Hints:
By secondary structure, this protein is an alpha/beta fold. Helices cover 64% and strands 17% of the residues.
Amino acid sequence: MRNIALCLLAVAMAATAAFAQTPRKTTLALMDLTTTGISKSEGAILTDALLSYLVNTNYYEIVERSKRDEILKEQGFAQSGACNETACLIEAGKYLSVQKMIGGSVGKFGQTWTVNIRLLDVKTGKVEKACIKNYKGEMDQLLNYMNDIAQEIVQATGITKQQIEAFRQKEVADSIAQAEAQRQAEQVKSARGKAVRDSIDQAQATIKRAELEIKKKAMDEQARKKFVADSIAAEARRTKLKMPVLTYSTLGGTVLLAGVTYIFYSGAQDSYDKYLAATTSDEAVKYWDESDSKNNTAAICSYAAIGIGAVNLVSWFLREKAHPELSGQTAVELTPSLSFDLTPSPFPNREGELEGLGQVTLTWRF
């Protein structure tokens, strides 16, 4: 951006320097030519032709006809359009604020065409150039004379070829400066558009990355939750298997120890009865020792049964807390069940008949 601004400044300075070195254009206005022997429309055509030729010389700053008429009307100028007298031309020139005025007439006398054009200095009132053309022939030749008159008027103002070339170079420099300024403006506009597009693309890329990051986090969170849920479900399945096994194992052990305790306690009672019925000291000692040993064994079995029963209660409590849904299931429902099903084989035997195959299924109810 800084380089572009410097280029624009350099072009502007070069154009200003070129303008300062060239003379300013002379301001000029052209009044409509008065006509004699031809129509006003034909006179307007000749006036426009002379005006166009003067413009093409690129030496004068010429007031347009519409602007001329508008200014003169606002100033209350008595004449409208055509003006040939010196006093009229000077008055109109003062109203138009120009340096030079051109007026004249065109007409036909007999078979001869007459053209009379004058260039006046508004400030001094001096006629600087009078161009008179007379000829016999077609009216079309008048258009060529308008070009010749324009060239004579330019030469009469004292302008040199160097000045004309300076004006031409200034026009070229102005065109180049304008084109360069337009090109620089297009570059600035293009650079701004590119910067905006890059910003939009970068913002869209940032949004897309953020969306992908959010999606990835959501997928990671979903995977984590699924892993936790699967772990909990697996642990629940293992607990469902372990708790009933532990419960029934401890319950069976308790019953077994209770039976063993009863057997040893009954044996101890029998030995004690034999001790009481003993007739000799040896028999008494023998039955006393048997009764004491069996009592100790029964006591040990009873303590073991109590301990296993406590473990059973703890396992039941834990199962109730971990899986309340199992509290309503009975011991029968928690045991595995066997089912036997006869289904036809998809493969026929040698005789072409389908045989029934026995299928054993082991189902865990919990």
